[in-house]
Amino acid sequence: MFEKWFEEMLIKEMSKGSVIVVDNAGFHRKEKLAEIAEKCECTGYFCHHTRLISIL
User: What are the boundaries of each domain within the chain?
Assistant: First the structure.
């Protein structure tokens, strides 16, 4: 379900070269999300939740 939203909603709103930050939740299939992002010329960045908070 997340992958469908990622591909059909989020990616369509992103510009080429955008960086998408996603937490490292177990249900996020990183390889699939990275593949979707790459097709749209975006970069997916996956990090642990605690590191994500410190970045923001």
Answer: 2-55
